Amino acid sequence: MSKILLINPDPIPRVLPPLGISYIAEVLQKNSHKVEILDIGFEKKINLENVDFIGITATTLIYLDAKSIIKKIKKINPEIPIIIGGTHASILPDFVLKDSDADAVVVGEGEFIFLEIANKNIKAEGIIYAPIVNNLDDIPFLTYSYLDIKKYFNYEGTDRIRWSLPQPSIAMVGTRGCPYSCTFCASKSLFGKIVRFRSVENIMEEIDFLIKKHKIKSIYFYDDTLTLRKKWMDELCNELKKRDLKWICGTRVDAVDKKMLIKMKNSGCKYISYGVESGSNRMLKDVIKKGVTIEKAEEIIKLTDKIGIGIIANYMFGIPGETEEDLKLTLKAVKRIPADAAEFSIFIPLPGTELATNLDWTQYSSKENPYHVKSKIHTEEFSEKIAYYHSKSIKSFYFSPKFLMRQTKMIFRPKQLFFAFKSLFRLIKNLI
């Protein structure tokens, strides 16, 4: 039996436990290993007593935090093998192995390969390629017995899971993989283009456990596109309805229809997050390669609104190749398309994506220079225009009478209304 410390290096506290390393913890614990998760957002002190292996995860935006923690651990005890995984390490394994000071990099899905390392069947050194988990039901569902889940329930963050759902609430995934070719997304680089589905029975086992153990009242499905398979989705909705749970998910406008939306509404779906991305069909077709038009997005979002499911619309600014006319079209879409909330991001290139293939990631810094040091995506003048339309869109959406009127539906849900306005105040503060 080994003792394993798994670390989430994100310095910002979140309202949800880290899913990726929780799955690894579950597999290790089910196989008689002692596991602890250290979430740096809540606890900074690193206890290395009797630890045999350390696993640390890293997305691109928190890679520098992971690197800093690895160097700190190596100074305290250089003998403990450190294994790094996650999207950034999986896509740039050679660079991360040399740069991070970790002993090993796991490429791909880490659950069972980490078990082999803990069992000492594989040495924790170099680049280790993990096979794809074809049957997701082989991965034990999450019990969270290796962390204090109540600290997440009690943390009053402003994530959508707080204002959109009754509490306590938890996130889960039903699928892995994405069949689409969006040029800004790295999901397919990690999980592949073939979508694998957990059985609905397996998902319900997890939900029933969480209801009994942690009294959860709602679910946030964290999948890229939950509604890909109609028959599976129909079965999922039937089972969710039996449990009288509320839930939210994200999907694409071309992956739902009227019949499915009605089924989702009747089974407790409160909100759907749609990636609108841009109001320009040129950007959607030629640059993002989304495969949908803004007209289709508007049609499905209006249908969703009519059926009575809340809408979270996602927009992106500063995509490579964007013009001021494209930015204007996105602003018009923001004003026109109905939504209960909207999230406005400025494009950040990610390794493993088509829009970032020509960038030198050895020079990238998520803190000092979140775009790129040597290869600016936009001129300084156009970056100012991007910032203007980004800010203008936020103000046009959140300060409109239409938005405020839509929030009246929360008047009988005071706790969710509190979190909704807390999110809004944070947004205003950031704008100022």
Task: Describe the protein in words.
With 432 residues, the chain is of the alpha/beta class. The protein is 41% helix and 16% strand. It has 17 helices and 14 strands. The protein has helices at 19-30, 63-76, 87-91, 93-100, 111-118, 150-154, 160-164, 187-191, 200-214, 230-242, 258-266, 281-287, 294-307, 324-336, 380-398, 401-406, 414-431; strands at residues 3-8, 34-39, 53-57, 82-85, 104-107, 126-129, 169-172, 175-176, 196-197, 218-221, 246-251, 269-277, 310-317, 341-346. The strands form three sheets. The protein has a six-stranded parallel beta sheet, sandwiched between helices. The chain has a six-stranded parallel beta sheet with strand order 7-10-11-12-13-14. Helix 10 (230-242) links the parallel strand 10 (218-221) and strand 11 (246-251). The N and C termini lie far apart (53 Å). The mean pLDDT is 90.
